[in-house]
């Protein structure tokens, strides 16, 4: 025979009022969910922004006029798209005063790669001029992909050395980028040469390509120069002839950082608000329950329960409710942010890098702790009230 | 030494602005093994008396000593402990906890005593004594009034009290169940426990060694010639 424990008594009491217990549990779950989910999301975006601003070597991004949004979408989220600038612009910009380096990219959208369930963006680049892709390969050497080789983003399937099929042709995976949190994660990189060859033989009608053109040009400005000035000079010179548009990456990043600030503020406010709501719900429910349970507690007193014991039972009940709710909410946050962070960050146009498992664990433990604490904290007052007054009177008013 | 010694016990309430005594200068001594019946009409103060004796209600005047201990001198925690260890109380009416099984109801006093000895044997012995062993896993809403009362009696006996208080234990029972309850008290008294019970009428009181009459809060010992 199992001994009678406070746990069992508390559990039985909760079970007797299933709807109320479930409701309280849900209130805590929502709070834990908001707390943990919000933290996971905003910290993930924070990491994404940080790594992007650390490693995105380009100061100025040149794209066709009207395509800045699409380019950002492709850069940040890997949304496949195609758009073109006339190719001779690359050399003009390479020698433009104040520009140190210029790296062209050609975006080829493909939906039928063998590797992936998600759409893959094929980006052709110039390994010689590149300073954009390279920083994302932590293994110090990025092998320059040969004609039938590609460098793949972190989330593109297939081991290094194996083959992947794009536009009906097979390519060998030469290297894999680190996780970027941006569109690069679902992109495949190849040389301009192989891209052009591919386009000539491609039977993919979706790809319309004007020979010699590129999609975007990333520029590094010489140290010490004002990036805005250089950008303006380029606009003055080529905006009309080449119908181009300029994105200054620093202001793009600071826009993103602003959004991140808003996101984390919002998530914190939501977490705090839902915590307070959960605490208020628990406080009110336990307080109202006191009246209803006078008789029960009076009986406990008759059987020789000390005041502390009654308080203990009530605290235990609230602890069970909040622990169950906390675990539920955190599990839900984990279960939902993992698959849906892409959807959410896409909607918000933000880069996202999942925080390491260790940090997530610590964060989860912290959120769990503050969710679990909400129960006992909010019913402390009721717990103290229970034992006060004559036990008999307590019993009588409940009769 | 008396198990129970009550002297000059009073409880004053104010009703409609007028003070009145629900219990008025009650005296009662009960020795080990004695069975005392308190007979009185509804509202005569029986429950109020029991509650003061059990230390659940603070008297307006007088003293209560249980097994030589003045319960009014004790702290709340000490009084709870004394109630838990030395007093078994069968409250008036239905007093089982609806969300606990009969088994758990009966061992609640042991749980509150915070001892971790194994009591399975004692619980089933008591349930057997009272003829409800087959209902151990049943919850109170599925029991009859008589079965609930027997479970409450078993619960009161759980911690081997020296004093058993039973407030109208046969009030709502049929003759058969009432007899079974009184048999249990008689057996308990025979084992040395002091039993004090209350009743409306004389039927149950016949089983008592002594009968005390209660009228408007005052207690009067009934002499043999009256009985
Ligand atoms: N908390 C209270 N405040 C005011 N009056 C009370 C209170 N409790 C009891 N009384 C009154 O004290 C008197 C005695 O009540 P008590 O419950 O002791 O009677 P009783 O003999 O147990 O009656 P019954 O046989 O119906 O159970 C009654 O008149 C009752 O109305
Ligand atoms: Mg009564």
Please provide a written account of the structure.
The complex is a heterodimer of chains A (399) and B (227). Chain A is of the alpha+beta class and 399 residues long. Chain A folds into 2 domains: 6-50 and 255-396, no CATH class; 66-242, no CATH class. Helices cover 55% and strands 14% of the residues of chain A. In chain A, helix 1 packs across helix 9 (307-348), helix 7 (249-292) packs parallel to helix 11 and helix 9 crosses helix 10. Chain A is elongated and about 95 Å long. The mean pLDDT of chain A is 82. Chain B has 227 residues and is α/β, with parallel strands linked by helices. Chain B has one domain: Rossmann fold (3-Layer(aba) Sandwich), CATH 3.40.50.300. In chain B, strand 1 and strand 2 form a beta hairpin. The radius of gyration of chain B is 17 Å and the shape is globular. Classes of the chains: A alpha+beta (399), B alpha/beta (227). Chains A and B meet through helix 1, helix 8, helix 9 and helix 12 of A and helix 2 and helix 3 of B. The complex binds adenosine-5'-triphosphate (ATP) and magnesium ion. Residues 46-47, 92, 167 of chain B line the site of magnesium ion. Magnesium ion (MG) is lined by residues 46-47, 92, 167 of chain B.
